[in-house]
Design brief:
- By secondary structure, the protein is an all-alpha fold.
- It is built from four helices and no strands.
- The model has no long low-confidence stretch (mean pLDDT 89).
Length: 115
């Protein structure tokens, strides 16, 4: 169903703002790729583990594991695709810049710069 909605949304965007579907794919290929990797990772995990028992705790743990695995797979796939494509301007670059700024503020000072 996700692919159907993707096609419908891209068709609607094409008719509203005259952006070709090929152009939309060219701009959005990294998140689409990351969603495919995330979905594959979750499905592989579910096939390897099997269905949880009917106990609510097991189902909650399974859901938490799927969310974690899916999130990590998505971020790694998106980041890898961005890096491989030459780190173009976009949201990934802004996140990298923000992370670099945060990390530079939280780094402890080196001993040779204290005195």
């Amino acid at each position: 169903t996700g692919l159907i909605y993707l096609g419908l949304n891209m068709t609607m965007i094409r008719s509203l703002v005259s952006v070709r579907i090929q152009t939309q794919f060219a701009v959005n290929w990294r998140p689409i790729f990351a969603v495919c990797v995330m979905t594959s990772a979750i499905l592989l995990f579910k096939m390897a583990v099997g269905l949880p028992s009917e106990q609510a705790l097991n189902q909650v743990l399974m859901l938490a594991a799927e969310i974690g695995i899916g999130g990590v797979a998505y971020v790694l796939a998106l980041w890898s695709a961005w890096w491989i494509s030459g780190r173009p301007d976009g949201p990934e670059k802004e996140v990298a810049r923000a992370a670099r700024n945060i990390l530079s503020r939280t780094k402890p000072e080196r001993a040779d710069t204290l005195g």
